[in-house]
């Protein structure tokens, strides 16, 4: 949102000779801004990332001297652009929900985009499933177009975005950079492999509500729910180990491109503790953006 404030100026002394004063000898005093201070012409304009441009203003005489009104305006801070990565079952989904709830970013999950194509039975979905069944990365040409269009969406551009699970290779990261998508922060969740395998194998989906359960850590509330739970086709021990092997092969190449903006987080802690680490990094980033904006405005 844009913001404006008013600033009134009054003479240093009401008893001094007005001829001895110039505009440089006025002392500023802040006054509350209300709609009664201004009358705007039809030429007034608002832009999504800027405050109110100068318009026709009406002088507001103070009770004890001459004054005039000055509008103070500043640009809006750029939205956050965040990537979050980690091995399968490292907790990306849980943390993305917490992040978007607090910061209002648009959550974009490459995996969800792919699974939607598979569920729809599209040609891209059929090709993607063949690779995923083998624990291999889906080719860039299948994924990059979907991700690009989502990042270019008006809500992503206005609110900022949280890209979950993409890029997973250096070629994907380079493709994003060529399209002009550069994150402010790259969050990496680190979890030991034995914990990841346990998390994946015990994971179950409720097809009615879409809620994710875990047979050990987050069991279903009732027998009725338990009876309808399903296991994702790639959530078996054999397939998750293939996916982890692929992940470890590619993660270092991706990190090398974002090493200056990477924050590594201990993903084996409780979800509250993991989010506390992430929240601290995002809070600092947002303050830096606002601080840079204030410096430019000054």
Question: What percentage of residues falls in helices of 4 or more residues?
Answer: 40-55%
Q: In what range is the share of β-strand residues?
A: 15-25%
- Could you report the average pLDDT, rounded to the nearest whole number? 77
Q: How many strands, which pairing sense, and closed or not: the largest β-sheet?
A: 5 strands, parallel
CATH class of one domain: Alpha Beta
GO molecular function: AMP kinase activity; ATP binding
Main location: plastid
Subcellular location: Plastid, Chloroplast
Pfam families: ADK
Entry summary:
This protein is of the alpha/beta class. It has helices spanning 92-103, 110-120, 123-133, 140-151, 154-159, 170-178, 193-201, 223-228, 237-257, 271-297; strands at residues 4-10, 27-31, 69-73, 81-86, 106-109, 161-164, 185-190, 203-205, 212-214, 262-266. A hairpin with a 6-residue loop joins strand 8 (203-205) and strand 9 (212-214).
Keywords:
single chain; 298 residues; alpha/beta; five-stranded parallel beta sheet; three-stranded antiparallel beta sheet; 42% helix; disordered N terminus; transferase; ATP-binding; ATP binding
Give an account of the 3D structure.
By secondary structure, the protein is of the alpha/beta class. It has a domain at 81-276: P-loop containing nucleotide triphosphate hydrolases (Rossmann fold, 3-Layer(aba) Sandwich). The chain contains 10 helices and 10 strands. α1 (92-103) crosses α10 (271-297) and α2 crosses α3 (123-133). The strands form 3 sheets. The protein has a 5-stranded parallel β-sheet, with helices on both faces.
